[in-house]
Each structure stands twice: as structure tokens, then as C-alpha cells.
Specification:
With 124 residues, this protein is mostly beta strands. Helix content is 0%, strand content 49%. Strands 2, 4, 5, 6, 9, 10 and 11 form a 7-stranded mixed sheet that branches. Strand 5 and strand 6 form a beta hairpin. The radius of gyration is 13 Å and the shape is globular.
Length: 124
């Protein structure tokens, strides 16, 4: 079992920034591809970003490329999502995800563990 606990969500004005954190525990952190997904009211959960086990490769949804940055700190068993130039359409519950696999991409169907989610609200 892997436990994932997100933090860092909140309310921010459009154009602002937030940094989400996800602390992992329970298994060897470096064995997991890590990622972030989000779900807005009435919509399906969607991929945001992912990072390989080594941290050397990343993947982003087109909607966040150039604005969001995913990173991981193996010593702290933590993955981060730095979100800049936030837009109202970024408003959603953001979920941390872990998958015991190779590569650096994630999809909802390939995730092994989910966090409980953290709310991000961007006001116009």
C-alpha cells in the first residue's frame, strides 16, 4: 500500500500561482511513476502531469504546458506541482497519483494509488 497526502490547494486570483505537494509513504517512493490529475464539477477526471521514477522525464497535458511544472524529491518522498499563470478553467480538485510502472506517462486506468484530493479555485 502507498498512502498519498496532498496539500497546498486554495483560492487564488487569475494569473497567480500555487504549489501543490504530495507526500508519499508506505512503499519505496522511487519505484513509482508519480502524477497529478484534476476533476472539475460535472467533468471526468483528467491527466495534468506526470514524472518518471528517476525524475528525468515529464509529461504534461496540452492545457497546462508552459504554466505547470512537476518535480519530485526522493529524499522527502514528495512530488510537487508548481502552477503559474493560473486561469479560472484550472479550478478543480487536484489528485496525486502513483503507478508502479516504467516510463513516465499516466492515465486514469493505469494509476495504482490516489490521494484524497485538494481543492484549487481560481477566481476571475
Amino acid at each position: 500500500q502507498v498512502q498519498l497526502v496532498e496539500s497546498g490547494g486554495g483560492l487564488v486570483q487569475a494569473g497567480g500561482s500555487l504549489r501543490l505537494s504530495c507526500a508519499a509513504s508506505g512503499r519505496t517512493f522511487s519505484n513509482y511513476v508519480m502524477g497529478w490529475f484534476r476533476q472539475a464539477p460535472g467533468k471526468e477526471r483528467e491527466f495534468v502531469a506526470s514524472i518518471s521514477r528517476s525524475g528525468g522525464s515529464t509529461s504534461y497535458a496540452d492545457s497546462v504546458k508552459g504554466r505547470f511544472t512537476i518535480s519530485r524529491d526522493t529524499a522527502k518522498n514528495t512530488v510537487y506541482l508548481q502552477m503559474n499563470s493560473l486561469k479560472p478553467e484550472d479550478t478543480a480538485v487536484y489528485y496525486c497519483a502513483a503507478a508502479q510502472r516504467y516510463g513516465f506517462t499516466l492515465a486514469v486506468a493505469t494509476v495504482d494509488y490516489w490521494g484524497q484530493g485538494t481543492q484549487v479555485t481560481v477566481s476571475a
